[in-house]
Specification:
This protein is mainly beta. Helices cover 0% and strands 37% of the residues.
Length: 141
């Protein structure tokens, strides 16, 4: 695969699994390019760069894994689709996670975060209303 442009993926694709496309030519990652019919999206170790914007996820998305990329900044878990069960963002240089416990549906199982081994500092986690962060938000050190 020479090019990895998510906007070229047909909107009818419900399952997308991509792994080890570090050398592919790609644009800055945005979730807005995910197929609107996506249910399972796994893009692992592909060298994606950018931030993770979760407020515009496809309505039927159940599982999102973007592990092993270079996605950074702050991840906000709010306005999530009711169908979403799991988010995996291991091995990304994410600085912070902001959680709205109220935005996590009963179906939601977990969101897992872990920085790359060579990165210094822990991921900071906050709950929007100052409550204790839901136990389904998992940080690995």
């Amino acid at each position: 695969l020479r090019y990895l442009f998510l906007q070229w993926v047909p909107q009818t694709v419900s399952t997308l699994r991509l792994r080890y496309f570090q050398e592919a030519i790609k644009e800055i990652f945005t979730t807005r390019f995910l197929s609107r019919n996506a249910e399972i999206t796994i893009i692992r170790d592909c060298g994606l760069e950018g931030t993770v914007e979760l407020t515009s996820l496809p309505r039927g998305l159940q599982f999102l894994s973007l592990a092993g990329n270079y996605l950074n900044g702050t991840v906000t878990l709010d306005f999530l689709p009711e169908s979403l069960r799991r988010i995996v963002l291991y091995e990304n240089p994410i600085a912070a996670v902001i959680v709205s416990n109220a935005a996590l549906s009963e179906k939601f199982e977990e969101a897992r975060f872990q920085r790359k081994a060579k990165e210094v500092g822990a991921i900071r986690v906050y709950e929007i209303r100052g409550q204790k962060v839901d136990k389904r938000i998992v940080l690995k050190t």
